[in-house]
Amino acid sequence: MESVPAPPADGVETRVLGFIRAQRLFEPGESVVVAVSGGADSLCLIQVLHVLREQLDIRLHVAHLDHMLRGSESSLDASFVSSHARSLGLDCTVEARDVQAYRRSRRCSLEEAAREVRYAFLAEVARETGATVVATGHTRDDSVETVMLHVLRGTGVHGLRGLDAVSRLHAFPGTETNRDAAPRLVRPLLPLSRDETQEYCLAKGLAARSDSSNESLSPLRNRVRLELLPYCRSLNPRFDDAVLRLSVAAREDDEHLSEAARALWAKIVSVSGVEVRIDLNGFAGATRALQSRLIHQSVAHLNGSARDVAFDHIAAVRDLVSKPVGKSVDLPGCIAWRREDSSLVAFRTDVVTEAPREGVSVEPVRIHVPGETSIPYWHVTARVIEGAAGAGPGAFVAHFDADRLGTCLFVRRRRQGDRFRPLGMSGEKKLQDFMVDARIPAAHRDEVPIVCSESQIAWVVGWRIDDRVKVLPDTRAVLRLEFSPD
Fold this sequence. Notes:
By secondary structure, the chain is an alpha+beta fold. Helices cover 39% and strands 20% of the residues. The protein has 3 domains: 9-235, HUPs (Rossmann fold, 3-Layer(aba) Sandwich); 258-348, Up-down Bundle (Chorismate Mutase Domain, subunit A); 365-485, 3-Layer(bba) Sandwich (Phenylalanyl-tRNA Synthetase, Chain B, domain 3). It has helices at residues 9-23, 40-56, 72-87, 99-106, 110-129, 140-153, 194-204, 220-235, 239-268, 280-284, 288-303, 311-319, 402-405, 431-437; strands at residues 31-35, 59-66, 91-96, 133-135, 166-168, 184-186, 269-271, 275-279, 328-331, 335-339, 343-348, 365-367, 371-375, 378-386, 397-401, 409-412, 419-420, 429-430, 450-452, 457-460, 464-465, 477-485. The longest helix is centred in the middle third of the chain and has 30 residues, at 239-268.
């Protein structure tokens, strides 16, 4: 991506087409949601894709989000984008979201809040329109800025890779997007500079909107763009090219580490909706680089993102390996890590079961196995699966060794003196102590359904099964229990 003089409009379209094909950004017949803010980059994007749509065999849908941050200026942007989409004969979704309210609820920066809300909106539009791809107007300038931001904040190899041409548009806490069905996020304009997108718009007679907030020095990205990068370019006129070469080298190293981390994850990690459990011996035997990857991936699984995880946080989690059982550390984003007998466990501290407080019966209710059972506020489904089926796939779904657990099961509220052996531990623990350590609020502890046999607790629903009834490689039949809010 060497810097070149701005080409004529058809030259831009040819370069973008070549990049799209080389990176395989689209498949023929796909529907694409195009994020359009009204600025030069996004206007260039929608115009280029509109010109190329028949060659690429793609269908386009414009999406614009009003962040409710700039008053009437935001409203005018929305009207402009809607009108421009109509002029191209394209459908357009325009919505407004309260980014400030989201920022307060997430306790994050305004930049972070705007990004998360915007991407959640784009994922929702993709789902509603049946699109499998979301396209954004990020340029090579954005990639350089991203690398420099990561350097300023402190980063590892992953943060040096800049912006990817293709990634996944994952969900964020508090949004309604489904990460299991996340669309691809593509950036077709990465070969172009910001100056080139502006020149393209001028050549096409497109009057792009300007965002007054881009001139503010309050956001760190703006200070990088307006102050740091101009100074770096004065020292090295080809500074952007140097940064992008660094990002290419970092991407190669990062992909090698990612492949190794994925292989290790498959061997030593088990996940559910509210926790990630890592085998302690496997973690301790891994290199520090792979340990960092496992920590990042665990947080990302629980929180949608690991961008707030810094070097100090990683070091604190690593230190748990040598700490006594029960020790824990808190990370940003309501994530905590706890050291157990044979595991490191990451979990969300703000997640509790969704049953109303009066929803769990004091007296045991028999669960039909196999079959379905209705109890106040819950519907329980039980079925037996032949052969080992592995761990349960979610917070309210669990798998058990059917022979060791049996089929005479009950669900009830917790009782004084309850004990069980949490998955991954070698000894029993008081249920009360487990709930305290798991950060279940005291007001919600009677809400948690307890599944038990005639002799023991089998499952603290939504939190942990008993280690003695887990599925093993030689398990002949698996009992699958699922709790659904009724």
